Amino acid sequence: MMKWLFLFALPMLFLACTKPAEPHTEIVLGTVCTVNAFKDGTKALYDELFATLSDIDDKFSTQKPYSELVALHDSAGIHPRTVSNDVFFVVQQACHFSALTDGAFDITIGPLVSLWGINTDHARIPTVQEIARALPLINWHHIMLDEKNTQIYLQQPEMSLDAGAIAKGYAADALVQILHAKNVRQALIDLGGNIYVFGKKSDGSPWRVGIKNPEHPYGTPLLVLTTEETSVVTSGVYERFLEQDGVHYHHILDKQTGYPVDNNLLSVTVVAPSSLTADALSTGLFVLGKEKGLEHAEKIGVEAIFIDDSRTIWTTPRIRNSLELLQEGYTFEK
Ligand code: ADP
Ligand code: MG
């Protein structure tokens, strides 16, 4: 009897002593990524999650010479390329969101992004001629998808894809699949502000997700969203920008003009169960502007929050009651 007790007691003791690992943070996908799996966070889990993130980074980066997006650019106008399932899926989804946003979101924005030097240390204002040459290359209708052979062909020479507005969302969804597979109960994923709150908190209370004040992104949040499991993604003018002669050039581009979108919006947040959806649409709805953007959000069936430079907050109707305003000087419209 004693022997059995002893044999049982040992593993129990061991389990009781296994403390969860600290939440893990790394720079991946060009941004600071943190995952906290709370009580279920082990080193092995974090290793697997971050290996997945670097694998996605390797495939979608426009800066790594071996990435699949670079390969697609190299064969643009020449021949199709066989790509991984990840790249095929994301590009297919990107086309879907281009169709849903009347082309406001367009993954073929690559030539413009590289002209502006977004995400590099050589950001600059392109010349009018450079922009004029790049604009005809930006057209998602010129992406040919061959699902059977998982091949992609960019029909025009010099075309290039930029997944900056969708890859982090895809990556968050990929992490969620792993969390499910490992029976993790509760986790918080933050990929440079691309948030996914997973599972239920141990005390049963809902999640509270802060939404930044676009004028003071590093201060107290402007809003708090109370929610069950979901993804919350914001596109804001404060994220990556270039300042010259007192003009602020941000990183959300209008393919009609070749310049950063100029429509009085400071940020757009999309709340949706799929982080890829929320990511693509936060950018797409930003480009559409608040009137069209709100219409599209309702039609597509996602929740959205628009903050403009008159400190007015516009939302889809359903999400309004789940939002708490933390700062004075801002008002809700609608
Ligand atoms: P963040 O990278 O700050 O999370 P977004 O999700 O809004 O912000 O994505 C902006 C990025 O997407 C830009 O840095 C650029 O790489 C790319 N991009 C810019 N304009 C567009 C657009 N109209 N359609 C698709 N992608 C875009
Ligand atoms: Mg986005």
Overview of the molecule:
The strands form four sheets. A nine-stranded mixed beta sheet has the order 1-2-6-7-10-13-14-15-17. A three-stranded antiparallel beta sheet has the order 3-5-4, with helices on one face. Strands 8-9-16 form a three-stranded antiparallel beta sheet, with no helix packed on it. With 334 residues, the protein is an alpha+beta fold. The protein has helices at residues 2-17, 43-60, 68-74, 85-100, 110-116, 128-134, 167-181, 275-288, 290-300, and strands at residues 24-28, 31-36, 81-82, 143-146, 151-154, 186-191, 194-199, 207-211, 223-227, 230-236, 241-244, 247-250, 265-272, 303-308, 312-315, 323-325, 331-333. It is built from nine helices and 17 strands. A hairpin with a 2-residue loop joins strand 6 (186-191) and strand 7. Magnesium ion binds at residues 165, 233, 235, 279, 282-283.
Global geometry: globular
Bound molecules: adenosine-5'-diphosphate, magnesium ion
Count of helical segments?
9
Average pLDDT taken over every residue: 93
Q: What would you say about this model in short?
A:
This protein has 334 residues and is of the alpha+beta class. Helix content is 33%, strand content 25%. The protein has helices at 2-17, 43-60, 68-74, 85-100, 110-116, 128-134, 167-181, 275-288, 290-300; strands spanning 24-28, 31-36, 81-82, 143-146, 151-154, 186-191, 194-199, 207-211, 223-227, 230-236, 241-244, 247-250, 265-272, 303-308, 312-315, 323-325, 331-333.
